[in-house]
Amino acid sequence: MHLLYEFRYFNSINKGIDQIIRVRGGKEIKVTVSSARLKVSSHSKKTLCHCLKI
User: Fold this and answer.
1) What is residue 19's three-state secondary structure?
2) Strands across the sheet with 28-40, in order?
3) pTM of the prediction?
4) CA angle 18-27-19, nearest 5°?
5) Any idea what DSSP says for residue 26?
6) Radius of gyration of the chain from Cα atoms?
7) What gap in Å lies between CA 27 and CA 7, rounded to an integer?
8) Domain limits for position 34
C-alpha cells in the first residue's frame, strides 16, 4: 500500500527537477531529483527520502 502511494506521489504531485550530476569516474548524467519526508515503518518515524530517476 505504501509503495503505491509513494509511486503516485513522485509521479504526479512532486515530479522533481532535472539536474546533471557527476558519478564516479567523472561521467556526467542527467537525472530527475525529488525528495519527501515519508514514514518508514521499520524505523517508526518519518525520514527524508531522496529519489533519483535516470
Assistant:
1) strand
2) 17-22, 28-40, 45-53
3) 0.59
4) 10
5) S
6) 13
7) 28
8) 2-53
State which H helix or E strand residue 47 sits in: strand 45-53
- Looking at the structure of the chain, the number of domains it has is 1
What is the rounded distance in angstroms from the CA atom of residue 39 to the CA atom of residue 48?
Answer: 9
C-alpha cell at 4: 503505491
Per-residue confidence of the chain (54 residues) as pLDDT tens digits? 466 666 677 777 777 889 999 999 999 999 988 888 877 777 788 888 777 788
Q: What is the largest CA-CA distance in the chain?
A: 38
Euclidean distance between the first and the last CA atom of the chain, given in angstroms as a whole number: 24
H-helix segments, 1-54: 2-8
